[in-house]
Amino acid sequence: ASQNGLIGITLNCHWFVPFSNDTLDHQASQRALDFMFGWFMQPLTTGNYPETMQSLLGSRLPNFTGAIQATYWILTELTTSIAIFIIF
């Protein structure tokens, strides 16, 4: 049945900024955003997961058909965190 409705999504997200101007901290910040925000939003807007997630998780990520797309979206950002690159 078709009702001509709109489907949207509101995401609550922690935002990340680099600890310093170091390239590794910038990459850590982007990686954190990819896993916090991109994990949910990028498949809806581009049809695939962020490159960071694809390179780290590979075939463990599900495939999308392209039929999934949000009509509109809202981001609620209440907290900003600092990201720093650390080798364990």
From TrEMBL:
Pfam families according to UniProt: Glyco_hydro_1
Listed GO MF terms: beta-glucosidase activity
GO BP: carbohydrate metabolic process
Keywords: Hydrolase
Gene3D superfamilies: Glycosidases
Family in the record: Belongs to the glycosyl hydrolase 1 family.
Name of the molecule in the record: Furcatin hydrolase
